[in-house]
Amino acid sequence: MAGPGGKLCGGMDANTLPQAGTIPREPEAGARSLSVRVIVLAVLLVFFADMWIRLACLITFVANIDNSVPAAPAMLGLLLVLGVNGLLRRFARRWELSRGEIATLYIMLLIAVPMASLGIIRPFLPSITALGYFAAPENEFASLAAHLPTWMAPQDPGVVRDYFEAGATEAVPWAAWAVPLAAWSGLFICFFVALMSAASLLVPQWVDGDKLSFPLATFNAELVGVSEVGRGAGSFFRNPLMWVGFALSFTFNAFNVAQSINPGVRALGLSYDLGALFTESPWDSVRPLTFYYRPEHVGFGYLVPLEILASTWVLYLALKAFNIGGRITGYNPPGYPYLERQSLGGYFGMALVLLYMARGHLGRVLEALRGGSREVPGPLSPRLSAAGLLIGSAGFVVFCWAAGMRPALAVAFLVSMMLVAVTFTRIRGETGTPSNWAFPFGQSKAVLLALTGTSYWVRNRDIASLTVLSVMNFLSRGYFPSMMAYQMENFELARRAQLRRDTIALAMVIAVVIGLWWGYYTHLEAFYKFGANVLEGGTTAGGYRTSLAVQEFNSLSSAVVAPSGPEREANVFFGFGMLVSIGLAMLRFRFLRFPLHPLGYCLASSYGYLLWAPFFTVYVVKAAIVRIGGAHLYRQLIPLFLGIAFGHFFTAGIVWGVVGALLPIDPARLLHIDVG
Predict the structure, then answer these.
(1) How many CB atoms lie within 10 A of CB 232?
(2) CA–CA distance from 592 to each of 1, 139, 206, 581, 618 (Å)?
(3) What is the pTM of this model?
(4) Collapsed DSSP state (helix, strand, coil) of residue 288
(5) Which end of the chain, N or C, is less packed with Cβ atoms under 10 Å?
(6) In this structure, are residues 380 and 501 in contact, taking their beta carbons and an 8 Å threshold?
(7) How many CB atoms lie within 10 A of CB 297?
């Protein structure tokens, strides 16, 4: 049921990047890439990256440098290594890192740095401490906390209080944190291994069968010197068009930064509120409607197929028609039109379509597991991939069960997040959308409770399951569902760099351990020194991640006091989203030129508010380029648009992330750039 080239009826344009399956290379020995010095360098670079994250994201709050894809600290680490390696090549060649070592080190940074980000450790810590600290007579936090085992969080009230308010000695009480951090680290590693194993099982179908182009892997390959769009290793940094694009992003960001320091400077800003133009009913129901200026999405958007670009902004504006229709008809229940639930349904439907498309390959995997003689290619052997998926998933479920959650609910929660991860990874493989958030975050838990109603759990006196699910909801609201995309892209980067992908799998697991280790250290050290209440933009009650945890437990308290039944309207729109994505896929199977793509619907309903404007912009530009110059001109201009993305990451992420964090100015006056 795949279209031309094996993709979903034409996934990428014919004029796009080289197809992933068209670059035959023999892998080099794994020992040449994962060496002791690579691991040592990873430990050191991740430490300095996390200390930078601590300063820029927690203390001064000038830029979420850990939010970009690729993460700005990982990119800076690579650039520093490339610079030092160039000097070693001239003056001390025996110490020079090989290309394989550089690629492996960068892959480890791409995995390790996000561990200390606003998507993993930063929402994790308040999720396990907020119940104890914010307990009050007017809420149910204390009774809810009683349902949690003692190993899930520090039990000493003083330890928790000092985490939020800063300790008198500013010292981290590591003894109180040792058991909780060890237990949760086991869960994180199990989930990571399960995702990586699932990615390994899908690689042969998506790379060799569907021939996805993996634009982000192409960008990363250019950075490490494995050229795909240039004329040889290192050509990316020697291409004048790349520097033209770089200059455009640099100028855009420089004026915005200058305006934040001196308001007299004129600058474009970060967005324009189109919703303000609609003041009359029913048209004012389209608000908010914001035109975001996001150079990274314009840069990588150039590599997105025209049909997905068009589908995203067209379907996002079409979804706004729900608001207008609701206003006209008077149907406007709370939450309408349930975009998040539509999005989750779309993601589920798309995942089922993708698994169905891969049924032939998965059948060969099952045959190999039963002892068949046919060899199945992939980063890991079928047996190792299946074992990793089963052991990682079992570890996840056992953790939930030991914490007090019903195993059936734990399995449903895990499967929900895995289906989201599959669709998100496909989106990144086909479009390269540089975002960790283009998925219905937080909805994996919400849909489970919407289907059953909270009254089911309260009636059966199973408050423990609800409490553990609420504590763990940060997993579906943070980066973990997107980690599978990183893994798939890293497997593809390893293939292009001629590295053994089983060695890269080991390197990524090591990177998770390093990232968690330094992430715990830098965050807890900052919180016990300054207090979590005043960091990450917080005033007296914590930053955004803390407020999300409190909001989560307030919702749980309300559900316990006043339980509700299944959410009929939300469930209907969840089913509607699933039917739309499956229906669009079937139409594309039946009509090869059908213009709307199901991945566009997934993006429009999940992250469309931010993506529609840059995708509309690059759609107009790309369509004109293809019409005027065809595939040749399109390919010639790829470095220009990659330069736009690189320039934004470098200027807004690296330069402003360093300079802004060090400026002796009140942080409240500084421009906060959310890179990614």
Answers:
(1) 9
(2) 11, 56, 19, 16, 23
(3) 0.92
(4) coil
(5) N
(6) yes
(7) 27
Q: Read off the pLDDT of residues 586-597 as tens digits, 9 standing for 90 and up.
A: 999 998 889 999
> Across residues 452-459, what is the average pLDDT?
87
Record the tokens describing residue 467, joined without a space.
């409490």
Query: The tokens of 240 are what?
Result: 């004048």
Task: Identify any residues that bridge with 272 across adjacent strands, giving them in sequence order.
Answer: 291
- Identify the burial level of 200 via C-beta atoms within 10 angstroms of its C-beta, where 0-12 means exposed, 13-18 middle and 19 or more buried: buried
φ/ψ (deg, to 5) at 273: -85, 95
pLDDT digit string, tens, across residues 117-146: 888 999 999 999 999 999 888 888 999 999
**Do the beta carbons of residue 611 and residue 438 sit within 8 Å?**
yes
Domain limits, the chain: 11-669
Confidence of residue 2 (pLDDT cuts 50, 70, 90): very low
Separation between Cα atoms, residue 300 and residue 645, nearest integer Å: 7
Q: Give the model confidence (pLDDT) of 474-528 as tens digits.
A: 999 888 889 999 999 999 999 988 898 899 999 999 999 999 999 999 999 999 9
**3-state DSSP assignment of residue 294:** coil
* Residue in the block written with tokens 């389209």: 286
The whole-chain average pLDDT of the chain stands at 88
Average pLDDT over residues 55-66: 84
Which residues on neighbouring strands pair with residue 273, listed in sequence order?
Answer: 290
Helices (H), 380-453: 382-403, 407-431, 443-452
| DSSP-assigned states of every residue in 116-128 | TSTTTHHHHHHHH
Count of beta carbons in the 10 Å neighbourhood of residue 210: 28
Number of neighbours of residue 330 by Cβ within 10 angstroms = 6
Return the H-helix or E-strand segment holding 222. Answer: helix 215-224
CB 323 within 8 A of CB 337: yes
pLDDT of 115 above 90: yes
DSSP at 534: G
- Paired residues of 292 in beta bridges: 271
